[in-house]
Design goal:
463 residues; 6-stranded mixed beta sheet; rod-shaped
């Protein structure tokens, strides 16, 4: 009885599927053997007693019932095995096991937990031993060659436009700045006593700029950007007339609005970064002088100039451009370091020299200035961005700019000094959908010459 049961269960039993059934079969088989031994012993003592015969009949009935239960369990195991084979075929585990080598023996010494052997395991082992190439399973994930997106707080973006796509980005920029100027006209007897007059000026400037930016993806690693600004600026100067002995403050206001300096930028992604590996994007910017420059506006030198000296008057109309062609190479970098992204910019701005420049004087014609070269600029910025969820992100950064001295006909312009501009930037981004995003940036000046507050709102839209 026991040998027959073992032979059947070895044929269909799976270690993980039939553990419970095997235990039940062993228990029933042990009971049957015990009962057979008891019956044999009882028969040897006395087979003629009615009580013994009745007991033997009861034992025989129980044994028959156990045999019936064993047969039922065997049928149940056979049904479970058929269901198991059907499930393996439905999910493709047989194919998967053949592609992986079939079993641990085919997987080699490094295999630890391969799928269960299939009925064709012997064929798989033979194929593996003969060195047959295994078919690949699935498809490897594509390498992420694009930098991660963060809330932009600098002018230069980090993620380029995909090939053939167009991004239109309307932008509104608001800036407010104040400056105090104290001019001493006279001479001092001792450091505490001044013989002459003091010119105290407070300058408050408000600038609003509407910018339409378009970016086109030439390739997945190169894009072209064009920026068209429209500038509206107003400046109020509060001061007392110098050399007049006036005891009252006067306000001199001037405004200007119109097209600003159009810019074009070409960007190229140098490498493919990744986790803890920086992305580098090189770029080159060219700025025109399409806006009205400071040499075109009229300077009020009748009411604001000291005697007949030039260079101290204020413009009647504010310029909307810088008046110089500009070349600016730069490098942007992004370093993903989960859960944040570090980024920054290095750039150098070179202003081309203008020749034979003249200044327009109110009721005084033109004042010849010669060759004017505005100071060049070096810029370094660094920031950190973090995604709050799948739609919103937050960035914080700092921008430091150094401006050199302006020269006129090869000589340093009187009153021109080196200037350091520092600005703390905080930005947020919210993605409405795959095509449209809202970006808001707040800039706070940390040096005296930097605008006190700057607010930038961008809405990039991809087509």
């Amino acid at each position: 009885m026991k040998n027959r049961t073992d032979r059947k269960t070895r044929h269909v039993l799976k270690p993980w599927l039939y553990a419970g059934g095997c235990a039940s079969l062993m228990a029933f088989s042990g009971a049957v053997v015990s009962q057979d031994a008891s019956n044999a012993a009882a028969s040897a003592d006395d087979t003629s007693s009615p009580a013994i015969r009745q007991r033997l009949a009861e034992q025989d009935a129980r044994i028959q019932a156990m045999h019936a239960q064993i047969d039922a369990l065997q049928r149940q195991l056979a049904q479970q095995e058929a269901d198991y084979r059907s499930l393996r075929h439905a999910v493709g585990m047989d194919v998967l096991s053949r592609q992986r080598g079939g079993n641990i023996a085919a997987g080699g010494s490094g295999a630890a937990a391969l799928p269960m052997p299939s009925p064709d395991a012997a064929v798989d082992v033979q194929a593996a031993q003969q060195g047959a190439p295994a078919a690949p399973v699935g498809q490897a994930p594509a390498e992420n060659s694009r930098p991660p997106e963060v809330a932009p707080i600098f002018q230069q973006p980090g993620v380029l436009t995909p090939r053939g796509k167009i991004v239109v980005e309307p932008t509104y920029q608001f800036g407010y700045s104040t400056a105090d100027r104290v001019a001493l006209v006279g001479y001092t007897i001792i450091p505490a006593i001044l013989i002459g007059l003091i010119d105290v000026r407070q300058v408050r400037s408000t600038t609003q700029t509407a910018i339409l930016t378009g970016r086109y993806g030439i390739t997945n690693r190169m894009e072209l950007e064009v920026r068209i600004p429209y500038v509206d600026t107003h400046t109020d100067t509060v001061s007392r007339e110098v050399l007049t002995g006036s005891a009252e403050n006067n306000v001199f206001g001037s405004s200007g609005k119109g097209l600003g300096d159009i810019e074009a930028t070409l960007r190229y992604q140098i490498n493919n970064g990744g986790a803890d590996k920086a992305y580098y994007i090189g770029w080159f910017r060219f700025k025109s002088r399409t806006g009205k420059d400071p040499f075109e506006v009229v300077t009020d030198c009748v009411t604001r100039c000291v005697q007949n000296l030039t260079g101290t008057g204020l413009p009647v109309q504010q310029p909307t451009g810088t008046g110089f062609y500009t070349l600016q190479p730069g490098l942007t970098w992004l370093l993903p370091s989960d859960p944040v992204v570090f980024f920054g910019n290095f750039s150098y701005l070179y202003n081309l020299e203008r020749h034979n420049v003249s200044e327009n004087i109110l009721l005084g014609g033109k004042q010849f200035l010669g060759n004017v070269k505005m100071g060049n600029e070096g810029d370094v910025s660094v920031g950190m961005g973090m995604a709050l969820n799948d739609r919103a992100s937050l960035s914080i950064g700092y921008d430091q700019t150094f401006i050199g001295r302006t020269t006129e006909s090869g000589q340093k312009l009187p009153g021109s000094t080196k200037v350091w501009l520092g600005q703390l930037l905080i930005g947020g981004s919210y993605r409405y959908n795959d095509k449209q995003t809202l970006n808001v940036t707040l800039g706070v000046g940390v040096t005296r010459d930097t605008p006190d507050a700057t607010v930038i709102v961008r809405v990039p839209m991809m087509f």
